[in-house]
């Protein structure tokens, strides 16, 4: 994972898949891609990438603990620990000699931030991610479906420089709160892992959830890909998502499958407000142990402050107001009267009628008549 913006709740999707890998006996290596974060249009300033990698490690471990997953077969690798080596650099040169500019740009289109005048770093990014498979010594690479073009690049191009093709596994992407992709660099699209309960409630109240519409509904997707699977891991059986109802509203709604929830939502038996209330309750319960761990860890708090320092507030420069003259009708300050009576300045033509009596008479169209 590229260590850029603060990790958000959609990270639970990937963590749950990693939990399944660990439960199946796999050894999982998580790449804290600090150099990738810097290459992606400077999303992570070079002086902050070290601290952001440490912050991501704290968050990922806490997320896995929150869903009761053992982490003894989990390994963290910092990208810069091997990506600056002579062998890796030479492999990057070799790979760049067989990958076209078009293919590199296409591979990173859904991952690297797209700007009008992109830098060369955005082309290096997907090549490095492909090479990481070889240098990490893994059998498969796992990521979101937005990585699929980079995975295709790796599968097609690594054999050209003598390295084997790996398997590629992908998880679904949870839509953002306002629709579209939930992004770490867009605070309005996501719920941060450390957002306070008040902020979580406010964001979910404002989240887009059209009545009876299931497709593109980020709230329903969060239930499908996070809340139900988390409940399943914790309970060791079928997952459960509960929508509590108070006084006169009827019995609580209990869903064990996402299909049943979607059916009720389409029929408007489950309204957007009811859905948001249920998700808020379940999400706050999920975040509670993570935030408690953060509050109890001075080291984590220190890293967070170094990784994401508060932006400097620029003091507004005091502008001296031009109060003008106390005497109305005098020339503006853009002109200045001289001792001989004429004026200078950028607006002198507006006030300078003449340079003498003869010119003044001429301007007034006064002529001497013959006697």
What's the gist of this structure?
This protein is mainly α.
List the helices and strands and how they pair.
Blueprint: H1 11-23, E1 28-32, H2 34-39, H3 49-66, E2 74-78, H4 86-96, H5 101-107, H6 121-136, E3 140-144, H7 148-157, E4 167-171, H8 197-206, H9 218-235, E5 241-243, E6 253-255, H10 258-266, H11 272-295, H12 298-307, E7 335-337, E8 343-345, H13 348-351, H14 357-363
Parallel strand pairs: 1-2, 3-4
Antiparallel strand pairs: 5-6, 7-8
Number of DSSP strand runs: 8
Largest sheet: 2 strands, parallel
Strand fraction band?
5-15%
Give start-end ranges of low-pLDDT stretches.
none
- The SSE order reads HEHHEHHHEHEHHEEHHHEEHH
Tell me roughly what share of residues is in helical segments: 40-55%
Helix/strand/pairing category: mainly alpha
Number of helices: 14
> Outline, from the CA principal axes?
globular
Report the end-to-end length measured between terminal Cα atoms.
Answer: 101 Å
Strand order of the largest sheet: 1-2
Cα-atom Rg, whole angstroms?
Answer: 32 Å
Mean pLDDT: 86
Provide structural commentary.
- Helix content is 44%, strand content 9%.
- The longest helix has 24 residues, at 272-295.
- The strands form 4 sheets. Strands 1-2 form a two-stranded parallel ribbon. A two-stranded parallel sheet has the order 3-4.
- The model has no long low-confidence stretch (mean pLDDT 86).
- Helix 3 (49-66) packs across helix 11 (272-295), helix 5 (101-107) runs antiparallel to helix 7 and helix 6 (121-136) packs across helix 7 (148-157).
- With 371 residues, it is mainly alpha-helical.
């Amino acid at each position: 994972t590229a260590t850029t913006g603060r990790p958000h709740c959609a990270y639970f999707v990937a963590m749950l898949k990693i939990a399944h890998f660990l439960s199946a006996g796999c050894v999982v290596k998580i790449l804290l891609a600090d150099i990738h974060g810097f290459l992606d249009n400077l999303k992570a300033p070079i002086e902050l990438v070290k601290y952001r990698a440490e912050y991501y490690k704290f968050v990922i471990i806490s997320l896995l603990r929150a869903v009761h997953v053992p982490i003894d077969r989990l390994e963290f690798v910092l990208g810069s620990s091997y990506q600056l080596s002579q062998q890796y650099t030479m492999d990057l040169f070799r790979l760049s000699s067989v990958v076209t500019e078009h293919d590199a740009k296409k591979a990173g289109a859904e991952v690297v931030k797209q700007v009008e005048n992109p830098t060369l770093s955005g082309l290096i990014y997907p090549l490095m991610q492909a090479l990481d498979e070889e240098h990490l010594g893994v059998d498969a690479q796992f990521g979101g479906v937005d990585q699929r073009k980079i995975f295709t690049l790796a599968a097609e191009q690594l054999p050209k420089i003598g390295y084997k093709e790996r398997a590629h596994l992908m998880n679904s992407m949870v839509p953002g709160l306002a629709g579209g992709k939930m992004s770490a660099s867009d605070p309005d699209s996501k719920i941060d892992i450390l957002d306070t309960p008040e902020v979580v409630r406010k964001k979910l109240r404002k989240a887009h959830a059209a009545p009876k519409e299931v497709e593109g509904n980020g709230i329903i997707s969060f239930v499908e890909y996070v809340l139900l699977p988390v409940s399943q891991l914790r309970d060791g059986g079928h997952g459960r998502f509960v929508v509590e109802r108070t006084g006169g509203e009827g019995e609580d709604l209990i869903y064990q499958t996402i299909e049943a929830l979607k059916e009720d939502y389409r029929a408007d038996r489950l309204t957007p407000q009811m859905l948001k209330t249920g998700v808020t309750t379940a999400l706050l319960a999920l975040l509670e142990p993570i935030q408690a761990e953060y509050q109890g860890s001075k080291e984590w708090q220190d890293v967070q402050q170094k990784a994401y320092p508060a932006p400097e507030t620029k003091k507004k420069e005091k502008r001296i107001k031009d109060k003008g003259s106390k005497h109305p009708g005098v020339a503006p300050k853009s002109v200045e009267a001289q001792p001989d009576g004429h004026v200078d300045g950028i607006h002198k033509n507006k006030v300078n009628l003449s340079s003498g009596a003869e010119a003044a008479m001429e301007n007034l169209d006064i002529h001497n008549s013959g006697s």
